[in-house]
Predict the structure.
Amino acid sequence: MRLELQDITKLYPGARANDGVCLKVAAGEIHAVLGENGAGKSTLMKVIYGVTQPDSGRVLWEGKPVRVSSPDQARKLGISMVFQHFSLFETLTVTENVWLGLPEKSKAKVAQRLREQGARYGLEVEPERPVHTLSVGERQRVEIARALLTNPKLLILDEPTSVLTPQAVEQLFATLRRLAAGGCSILYISHKLDEIRALCDRCTVLRAGKVTGVVSSPSSETNASLSRLMIGAEPPALTHQPREPGATVLEVSGLELEKQDEFGTSLHGVSFSIAAGEVLGVAGVSGNGQNELLAALSGEDQRAAPGSVKLFGRDVARSSAARRRKLGLHFVPEERLGRATVPVHSLSENALLTRRDSVSPGQVLRKSPMRELAQRLIERFGVKARGPEAKARSLSGGNLQKYVVGREIDAAPKLLIVAQPTWGVDVGAAAQIRAELLRLRDAGSALLILSEELDELFELSDALVVIAGGRISPRIARADATRSLIGEWMSGLWPEPEPARSLRPSNYAKEQLAGAGGTP
Amino acid sequence: MLELEARPEPSRAWAVLSPLLALGLTVGVGVLLFVALGKDPLRGLEMFFYEPVKNARALAELSIKAGPLLLIGLGLSVCFRSNVWNIGAEGQFILGTIGATGVALQAGPSTSGWIIVPVLLAGTGAGMLWAGLTALLRDRFNASEILVSLMLVYVAEQLLSFLVHGPWKDPDGYNFPQTITFLAQTRVPRLLEGSRANWSVVIALFSVAAFWLFMYRTHAGYKLEVGGLAPRAARYAGFSSRAALWTTLLLSGGMAGLAGALEVAGPVGQLTTHVPLGYGFAAIIVAFVGRLDPIGVTFSSVLMSMFYIGGELSQSRLGLPKSITGVFQGLLLFSLLSCDTLINNRVRFRGLRGARVEAP
């Protein structure tokens, strides 16, 4: 056994993050750790990587008991980890980023090793490129390449595919299989059942801090059987009834917007519309203009040219978020803490951000309706919190997500814009949120959904568009869309009305586009 | 090894205990200081903590010092909570004294006592005007409100100096830079005959209640707070940051102006270059020691006034330098900010608890 965990228990104030967890990983094995959000996956990885210490239990490395007291020590043992959020310096080159973490003296040697390793594992990276010119998939390759340069015996990957196109996921899997064949063990943390079935040799399932099952060949399981282990019950299947779209709710025409920060993406000639009772899904690799588009639609960015954003035929391009909300536009941003909520405010105070129900005509706050609203949201969306007075920052990411999405759904908006509706929430809650979103649509609301999960978009949308390089693809009905087609479009390659433009999926191409200029 | 660990929720117990511990530390260091200076520490502490509150007369003096600190501190609390850094309350205070004097000087022997209302309003308005300049420059040209408000203090000082040396100089004042002594009807009425305490205490306490309601019970107060705590959440919610800038600056400027008017028409009774004593700057400490909360600011303004009075008494009775006041104020602020760490963090002794996974 390369790694063995025995009865690991980790207590946090008010929670048992890990409760007697046992885990065995053999040499050259790809082992999945599956669990819903808050099941204790991250805590377990932190224990293995030495970020935190368990309260009881033993860690055995190659058969010997060890005490991993720091990530540094973990790396010395031969454990490497690729975190979900990248930690690369944007202004440095690939080599420089990798060089930083190595005892190696010579930069040229690092570049040389990167090239050799890239050829061996299909991890091609250009060592001289500055990181800010790389796409997200390329950046992840840099992270993995960096982790591999220490010649680890165990590589931990935390939700590695959340930012990748389907094609990039395939490429990643090929790399991982090659690594495993070379004897490196891999711990693959995910909540995506398809990926685990496709990739992993064995799978340990966690629920509420405990191991609920060890599956010896995930590929012979079904999604349903795995999710039963993970959440205890199978999520109900969604019913997506076809529905005649109504009047146009949101119309975006020729929206041009210069990026506000250096690493942002400018929007070019963005045009689309959504009708009442319709769900429009926006697919795309993150960082392709999603943030800019959302801010322009929500009213957080009011620089759009007059007439480019119309809500119910009214020009709102320069209206404030509050004004748009009054017209019926509600929005769930990706950042739940600090944008969708005030971290140090209670849930009931946070309800006030977008809900005016408990403000009296004299502008006085009425505390008990505020609390009741928060309590209702907590119950309806199964938010795990101490109550309406719990501070927003005390909630786990998934629970806060439920609260925020719930707050906006509960407002019965005429247009709901949601970024990553089920980000970080468990399978059961994700199913509920999706069902609520569809119920909203069936009640005649228009929905714009941005998600990194293609499955989710296919499940919810009536039609899809793809955003790449700050531009929006033509609209395609869900029935006509396939994963591979959308994947191709996500690289910016869609049939273009203007034949002069050639599109490539890199920031370099984006810059070219920006230089070429859009329509005035 | 000592280690700080973030608490999941702020501790309510420490929210109360932290100021007490800070006061304890201040007293403790104060004792050491008195001993080091060769003074009887008990006598020293008596100057600061007993003399200012020992009888009605002392309390009246205390109220005269605490009143302006409280009024300015309240306004600044709202400002700082919204991340608007008005450092120039002193200048707005000076404009308040000028505005009030401008009206008070118009009074004749037949003027009714109600003129005190326009006197106070003029002071408030002048303070708002001065803070409004800062708001305008920030809004229009994105100038730093910290620098602008601070520099406007010096402009205000020059303006005051010009007026009392020039147009407003008392013709019978032996050429001293001062206005005439205000007529009785233009003075803030006293609370009781024979006591120096006047109605400004009532105004200040009423303001505490009003600010508490505004900050915690109105939508406007909520919007300002969100803007300060999480600007991106405020933008998301659609709360205007321009409105917040103007509201908070006008409000704090008005409060400083009111304090100035109450000072010049109250205990002082004439405008001289010595009317501004630095209340506007001290109120910044008052606001922070009071945790930007109206009730907290009430306590901290009283405490700060005790330090002022204690410092003066130590000077006259113990022969200590007057700067001892500043030392005490600084000590208190420093220990409070340090102790407040315990509200959101707990201290753990690493090595005693923590890792217990060992090789057998």
